[in-house]
Amino acid sequence: MLRGMSGSEARRRARLHGTTVGRVRDDVLAYTAGDDLRLDVELVEYDCLGTAAHVTMLAAARTRPPLLGRREARRVVRELGQMAVEARRGRFALRPEDQDCHLAIERILTERLGDTGRRIHLGRSRNDQVATALRLHTRDHLLGAVQEAAALAEALLDFAGRHLRVPMAGRTHLQPAMPSSVGLWAAAWAEDLADDAVLMLNVADLADQCPLGSAASYGVPLPIDRALTARLLGFSRPTHTVLYANHTRGKVEAAALHACAQTMVTLSRMAEDLILFSMPEFGYFVLPAGFCTGSSIMPQKRNPDVLELVRSRAARVAADAAVTLEILRAAPSGYNRDLQDTKEPYLRGIGTTRATLRILEPFVRGLNVRPERLAAGFLPEVFAADRAIELASSGLPFRDAYQKVRGELDHLTREDPAAAIARKRHLGAPAGLDLALLRGRAAAAARMAGESRARHRRAFTRLLGRPWPPGH
Ligand code: ARG
Predict the structure, then answer these.
(1) pTM as predicted
(2) Which pLDDT does position 205 carry in this prediction?
(3) What CATH number does the domain containing 107 carry?
(4) What pLDDT sits at residue 329?
(5) Could you tell me the distance, in angstroms and rounded to a whole number, from the CA of residue 100 to the centre of ligand 1?
């Protein structure tokens, strides 16, 4: 008897369940399918595309008899296009006995097309099938994240432009350090994000290799054309060895999640600054009202919940990256079912990153500053380093100037913050910022992502013989 269950419950659970790929007990089916029934809904449209490429390739192979008839392939592709639309509209339901979206799609094709549906799995395995769907997903979503990161960078640069010379005490160790500006603060986060976007673009390039045709991990004794399927799906190239094609499962997910985690770290640190600097005790920034939540007991509260969740979600994405590597670490070569469990952290991590980028763009656009509160942060000590540098510029060794200012700290006077930042004119300094250069970097990343996505859409439209995505 299964532990923790009544006898009849255990007998009911232990019933063998017939599936496309063999008979297993209900409880085993539930355990092994895991979260796929829920998670795979997101993969359906990508698997329809991968399957469409596979059957198109089968029908193009010059064998006698054909691996799949051309008319049959066309009917399959038509149904797949239909199914992908249904999935997009939230009308695709997996059944427990399907195990995952791959078997669900095959079942539905068989229900709708009879024997033709039962021919399509020739020359592939669920292993290369799921790897292909995931690579299409990674490419699409990372490129989407690049565009969203660029949009947020642009919002930050607009904000920087509006407050370019508004003085803000720069801090190190959170202690007042040197004269700086709101423009520098915002431009720095924009540059951070532009670099994160480059990282995500690079991982999108890793994901841009087609694993289809590697089958279970060892290829098939058929003249399949892997270059053709890669081309049909708009991939830049197929992965080469069929074994490595399966090893990219999880590995590319981990790389994508690390790029996401890197992006989330940027956002989390910026969120932390905003939480701190919008506290009444600082009052430098005013957070947009629509993004703050109230308290059930304290009428005065306007809490920065969004920013707090950005911090916790950055922690979660980092954990998603870490667990993905941990799952891979002990997996031997070839496909192992462990790989299935990389799906959840992957989908969650990339989804969280995109949602965070998207919510912060309007947030930054609604941000306001209070110059008088920022000015009040300029205690005389903020000018100490500038004073030492000024003394040294007239010939004194810097160490002597430093000691002199250090000995007279109590007599330091408060200078004009605006004049102090105006004197820092070199490259990248508060008065030497080239916002156009940063805009160019963000725009270049967004353009590359946009062009790639447009190329993929054209490939999918050709492959399915209908506009893809629908309504685009
Ligand atoms: N749902 C499975 C996964 O995500 C599909 C591959 C199953 N392959 C197998 N040999 N059991 O990994």
Answers:
(1) 0.94
(2) 98
(3) 1.10.275.10
(4) 95
(5) 8
**Same domain (yes/no): 310, 394:** no
Q: Is the pLDDT of residue 282 over 60?
A: yes
Domain with 197 in it? 126-162+185-368+443-464
Whether residue 316 contacts residue 352, with contact meaning beta carbons closer than 8 Å, is answered with yes
Closest atom of ligand 1 to CA, residue 99:
1
Does residue 73 sit in the same domain as residue 158?
no
One domain, residues 270 and 397: no
Give 369's strand partners: 285
Cβ pair 123, 73 in contact under 8 A: no
Cα separation, 47 vs 84, whole angstroms: 9
Quick check: is 176 in a domain?
A: no
pLDDT at 2: 43
Q: Give the confidence band of 405 by pLDDT, cuts at 50, 70, 90.
A: very high
Average pLDDT over residues 173-201: 98
Which pLDDT tens digit goes with each residue over 16-57?
655 667 788 989 999 999 999 999 999 999 999 999 999 999
Residue 15 counted as domain residue: no
Confidence of residue 306 (pLDDT cuts 50, 70, 90): very high
Q: For residue 320, report the phi and psi dihedrals to the nearest 5 degrees.
A: -60, -40
Catalytic annotation on 217? no
For residue 458, being part of any structural domain is answered with yes
For ligand 1, say whether the CB of 126 is within 6 Å of any of its atoms.
yes
**Is 393 found in the same domain as 357?**
no
Residue 59 lies in a domain: yes
Residue 1: predicted pLDDT: 38
Tens of pLDDT, residue by residue over 134-180, are 999 999 999 999 999 999 999 999 999 999 999 999 999 999 999 99
Q: Are residues 288 and 354 in the same domain?
A: yes
pLDDT, position 12:
54
Active site annotation includes 173: yes
Report whether 56 contacts 68 (CB < 8 A).
Answer: no
Whether residue 84 is predicted with pLDDT greater than 60 in this model: the reply is: yes
Distance from residue 95's CA to the centre of ligand 1 (Å): 16
Atom of ligand 1 nearest to the CA of 343: 4
